[in-house]
Structure formats: structure tokens, C-alpha cells
Amino acid sequence: MGIMPAGVLMLLAFTAALAAEPFNDEGVVLQPGAESVFAAGVGAPTVEWDGTQFLMYFESPAPEPQIPEGCGGAYQIGRATSPDGLVWTPETLPSFSFGGAEGTTRYCSVAQPAVLFDGTLWNLFWSSSREPAAGSTANQPTGIGWATSSDGLTWNVQAETLVPFTGTAMGLASAAAVNGLVYLIWSEYPNLFVITRPAKGGAWSPPMLAIDHELLGDWGSEWALGPSIVCAAESAAPLRMLFGADQAETFSRSLAWATTTDGSTWTVDEAGPLTGGTLEYGALNHWEALSYDGGGTRLWYSRSDTETGTKFIGSAWSGAAGGEPQPRLCPNPYAPADTGLPDDSGAADTADTQGGTDTNTPGLQPDGCGCNGAAERGASVVGVAALALAAMRRRR
Fold first, then answer.
1. Do 312 and 249 reside in the same domain of the chain?
2. Which of 238, 308, 349, 370 has its CA 20 to 30 Å from the CA of residue 140?
3. What's the predicted TM-score (pTM) here?
4. Distance between CA atoms of 74 and 106, rounded to whole angstroms?
5. Beta partners for residue 15, in sequence order
6. What is the CATH number of the domain that holds 237?
7. Between the CA of residue 291 and those of 242, 269, 358, 372, what are the distances in Å?
């Protein structure tokens, strides 16, 4: 293990507090037919609950005639809806596609979507690429982009490259929001990183190391990947993350849970990877989860058909049955009851101290809640983040 900068070791701890229940496979839930524009396969699902239905965004290879000239293939992002998370109806056209002039960031492809409704707007993040470099046949990754929408259908690009590609494998992002702050976590080989932004507008924070694969043990010796952030309404730690880790051997893959109270220090279940159930964890390509207020978790995953190699999307369930799905706009665990006083904004309110007085002063938030105060703490972690990134790149 390489020498880590001071403070970075505290970014990962272990606990036995989580109930690491296994997932049981529910089978295929989305596999478009031969006449569909998504017939070449569907993968990398990301799912949100809007209060009345589930919305899934997924990647799919573009039909051959639509691949831009000079590109080594192309992916587009489709959308499907469902009343129960199991029966899905895909739309007939891509929801978000590649485009732009030759040489631009998403000229060839948009893939690996992550969706979040932050209380005001729908947010879509994706991994993009442009045409191959000289002497190569594979598209060049360019980074993670970001767009917003008022309806989840028509997208306004906010940043073609929110997180630039740095020369290592990256992508597979996930997003959630709690107490007025948006979190975006992504895989950047071999670790997981996080940035934050106030939901009502403002700059994104510098990247922070969220999970260092070297601290996971043998089951994460190759890299940590595929974060999926879910809400934990019943917990003082409002965010949970289901993530994957690989050993050096191909597809020696595991899934495990982690929690946080401040968005930067993630606590991994000391039991390590999930075991048991009927889901083949090692066969999964991508995954995304949502929690239910009854205590259960539904996982949507993509894997390849063993006969055709075409990707499909399936579902799996863990924990208690019943309850309502929890959107990625997480309930604020520190919000006081509405007192009816002029300075009390009710359901959207946040206390300045946990269980304490509410003055509705922006930026005064309880320590450890992972809310607006985290943006103020961003300056103090810039040095640690930079050291962590530098140390990683020296080890590569």
C-alpha cells in the first residue's frame, strides 16, 4: 500500500451497523425487441422515483447507420417508465444523444447516465467520448457531462465536461441530494470521488476522494467502481452507497454498502462484500439502487446474455418487503417540525443545530449533516483532495 497523505485515511472507516442483506434476483425487466431503436442492448440503468412512477435512463448502442463518421461505435441514452419498477415501457426515441461538431466532447457517444431530481430540476450526468486518436479504433473518453430539465424530457446542457477525463478509466456516476446539496460520485480508476453543489445554484466543489480501493482489502485490490447513492430516511446518516469492487482477476466482482454523515467520510460495512441470495454479483456490468421506506432496496442491473452477448436490464430485491420508494432527493434528517413562526419555512426548513434553534440563516447547518456547510468546508479539503489525487497518479 502506498503512503497516503495526512487526513485521507479518515475518508474510509468500517462498521457493523449496516444490515448487509443479500439481493435476490427478480429476473429480466427490460430487453427491447428486434424492432426497437434499442435492439442492440440496454445497460447502465439509473432510476428515479417522481412520486407517481419510476423513470429509468439507460445506455444503448446506436444503430449502425447513425454512428458518426470516424467514430468507433456510438452510444445513446434512452428512457423508460414503470408504475412498479418491474414492468417497463421504453420510449421509441433516445432521450439524450451524442451530437456536435467533429472533435467535440460528445461527438461519438453519451453513455452511463446518472439521474437526479433535486427538488427543482431533473439532472442528467453522462460519460462522453469523441473519435479515436490516431492509430486507435476506440473512441476517446472526454469526461462526465451535465444537463438539466424541467420535465426529464428536454435537456439543457450545463457543462459538456463537468469532470474532465484524466487518462484513466472513469464514469459510472451516481447522484443524490440532501439538505440543499447535490452529491455526484463517480469511478475514476482505481477509486471513487465526489463533488457537491448547492441545489439552488452555485459552483461545484473540488473533487474529494470518497473511497480508496487500497483500504478495502483483497476484494477491492483492483479498483472500486459503480457507486449508487440511495437515501436512508430512517437513519441519522442520510446517504447510503452501494458500490462495487474488483479483484485483479477478470470479473472477480463484489458489491458492498457504505454510509456517510457528511458526504466525505464513508463508512464501509465491515462484513465486506454481500454474499448469499440468488443474484450473481460477479456477472453484473452496471447497477443502480433505490431504497424503500419499508426497509427494502431494489437494485436494477445490466448484464450480458450468455448466448447472444446482448445486454439486458434486470431487477433484484433486498431486505423487508413493502413501503414507498425513496427518491434521490433525500429527506432531511435534521429538519424541525413546522412551528408556524414567521422564521420557520416548514417542510423545506433546516435547523442550524441538530435539535436546536432554527434561524433560517443560509450556511448555518449542523456539523456532519452533509448539507450547505459542506460547501463552506470545501476550501479546507482542497489541499487534501489535491494531495490525494497527486498521490494516486504517482502510484499509477
1. yes
2. 308
3. 0.83
4. 10
5. 269
6. 2.115.10.20
7. 11, 17, 29, 24
